[in-house]
DNA sequence: ATATAGTTTAACTATTTGGTTAACAAAATT
DNA sequence: AATTTTGTTAACCAAATAGTTAAACTATAT
């Protein structure tokens, strides 16, 4: 089947490109290396994706479309605030174990290319904070949590969950543990982080 | 003066190299661009630093030696735990405003080159967590704070302080504010973050 | 004044790298 | 069965890029 063969090749390329781009970034990635990993000729990369830039954009969009639903779990989920924080924290660790380089990749390339954000924003499913804001102010009015700006709380949640992965090599060195122990620490954070946040805001 | 002239050129190169490497990373930086920024011929870069790799290492070490004392403020300062958290948080924001690309640069290059950590570890002034551990367990024993592992608390402090800068483009988009408003949010974090942490752990 | 050591440049080289071309192979279409 | 379309490759090209060389220049010491 032609269709199947094509789809396989195209998927193979995207898979290989993801690995290389996410590990080395746009600037550090080499088309030849991607071709090798996909076990095809370099010209085929250009046949399917025209240029390094376009291949990169395909990888980037695909990465972001995996990350966005994760973020939406904090922002646009209907569950109760505390429950939401607990679920997100628990899920996020599992997510990053499946896609270890992904969050770092997205953040890194956004830093080097802040105008990308505009492109992402216009797309559907781009996470919005509005609902979360309402939920936080409701919880404050109902006396469930102490006054805090929703933006600050959101940044705290995201920071506590994402940074331990992005800063892994640095944190491992500072905390002075090996990979195995660090993984245990991360595993513990599945519950630890949520309780840390809830402790801070609950009345 | 010969000496002064040499030192100026060498310093000019390092200054230019810092800017370029910290913004674009090892892979994205171009020797020509560094030479242009330092207003010298490209051959002079090699005269003073032999290779891109060596120039990069000079920049990296210099960057880390600025970051290390900041981290030591949480780890090896003598002040009281709460006071320490407040001071660190306050200082860190000012530090990053002075060196916007620095923390991201260090973390990014460590991710792409985890073996760098070994080189850094052996150097003096490499931050150690031991003192902080004692301080936390003392505070727990004295009933000042709830039980928490020092490692987890440390990771939380660092995450809450560093990530808002590293994730700036992403967070700005998610929180849906412009640069000016985001800067205000960061400014507020100077006190906000410390209180968030202390609220969570104090009894 | 002159030798000497250090500094700087223009021009060059070798290699890497993204991208192209032309020929070939395999399917799909007629 | 013939032809068109799609997929794949080896060989090639031009631009970019790290690094080199040799000569010129500058300042200091002799």
The gist of it:
Two copies of one chain form a homodimer. By secondary structure, chain A is mostly helical.
Strand and helix map with partners:
2 copies of one chain form a homodimer.
Chain A (H helix, E strand, L loop, with lengths): L1 H27 L2 H8 L3 H8 L2 H24 L5 H18 L3 H11 L3 H7 L7 H12 L8 H17 L1 H8 L3 H23 L2
The first copy, chain A, binds a DNA duplex (30 and 30 nucleotides) through helix 1 and helix 3.
Protein name (chains A, B): TetR family transcriptional regulator
GO molecular function, one term (chains A, B): DNA binding
Keywords (chains A, B): DNA-binding
Q: Give the proportion of residues in helices of chain A.
A: over 70%
Let me know the largest β-sheet of chain A. none
Largest interface: A-B, 60 and 60 residues
Mean pLDDT of chain A: 94
List keywords for this structure.
mainly alpha, Arc Repressor Mutant, subunit A, homodimer, Tetracycline Repressor, domain 2, 203 residues, DNA-binding, 2 domains, DNA-binding (chains A, B)
Describe the structure.
The structure is a homodimer of 203-residue chains. Chain A is mainly α and 203 residues long. Chain A has two domains: 1-50, Arc Repressor Mutant, subunit A; 60-201, Tetracycline Repressor, domain 2. Chain A has eleven helices and no strands. The first copy, chain A, has helices at residues 2-28, 31-38, 42-49, 52-75, 81-98, 102-112, 116-122, 130-141, 150-166, 168-175, 179-201. In chain A, helix 4 runs antiparallel to helix 5 and helix 5 runs antiparallel to helix 11 (179-201). The longest helix of chain A is centred in the N-terminal third of the chain and has 27 residues, at 2-28. The model of chain A has no long low-confidence stretch (mean pLDDT 94). Chains A and B meet through helix 1, helix 6, helix 7, helix 9 and helix 10 of A and helix 1, helix 6, helix 7, helix 9 and helix 10 of B. Chain A binds a DNA duplex (30 and 30 nucleotides) through residues 1-2, 5-6, 9, 30-32, 40-48, 50-52.
């Amino acid at each position: 089947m032609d269709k199947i063969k094509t789809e396989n090749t195209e998927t193979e390329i995207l898979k290989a490109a993801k690995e290389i781009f996410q590990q080395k970034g746009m600037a550090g990635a080499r088309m030849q290396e991607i071709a090798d990993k996909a076990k095809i000729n370099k010209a085929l990369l250009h046949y399917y994706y025209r240029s390094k830039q376009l291949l990169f954009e395909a990888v980037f969009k695909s990465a972001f479309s995996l990350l966005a639903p994760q973020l939406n779990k904090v922002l646009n989920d209907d569950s109760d605030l505390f429950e939401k924080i607990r679920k997100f924290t628990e899920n996020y660790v599992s997510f990053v174990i499946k896609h270890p380089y992904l969050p770092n990749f997205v953040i890194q390339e956004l830093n080097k290319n802040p105008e990308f954000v505009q492109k992402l924003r216009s797309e559907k499913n781009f996470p919005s904070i509005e609902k979360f804001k309402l939920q936080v102010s409701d919880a404050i009015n109902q006396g469930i949590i102490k006054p805090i700006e929703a933006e600050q709380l959101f940044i705290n949640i995201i920071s506590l969950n994402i940074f331990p992965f992005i800063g892994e090599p640095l944190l491992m060195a500072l905390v002075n543990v090996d990979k195995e122990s660090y993984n245990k620490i991360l595993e513990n954070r599945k519950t630890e982080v949520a309780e840390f946040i809830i402790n801070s805001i609950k009345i």
